[in-house]
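Entries read chain and fold; for instance:
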Amino acid sequence: MTARVVVLAQDLIWADRLARAVEAAGAEPVRVASLERFETALAGSDAAIVDLTALAYDGVTAIERAHTASVHALAVGQHDDHELRKRALGAGADRVYAYRKLFEDGPATIAAWLARPAGIEA
């Protein structure tokens, strides 16, 4: 069965890049650009990826919603925004990666994250 991964990103380039990385990792991406659609898409999803730097939604709140729904979440953001990265981890993100990491190694990074044993934090 193919994993279903909700991709929450406002930026069209990153939304496309993340969705393609999810596909290359062997999973099915579900692209959304708002917190409301994200919450709806969490039902029936196996995982979520949240772009933290959007202006249209609060990425940390999205991570909290995924955590509440028992959906593992990976976040992506600026490498030098340590405070936001800490907040995302505190909200329940399994990992927070810099844009560069997912740009350079997105499919392999996402595949490894999705392959983690259930119930084990990445």
About this structure: Helices lie at 12-24, 35-42, 59-68, 82-91, 99-114. The mean pLDDT is 93. The chain is about 45% helix and 20% strand.
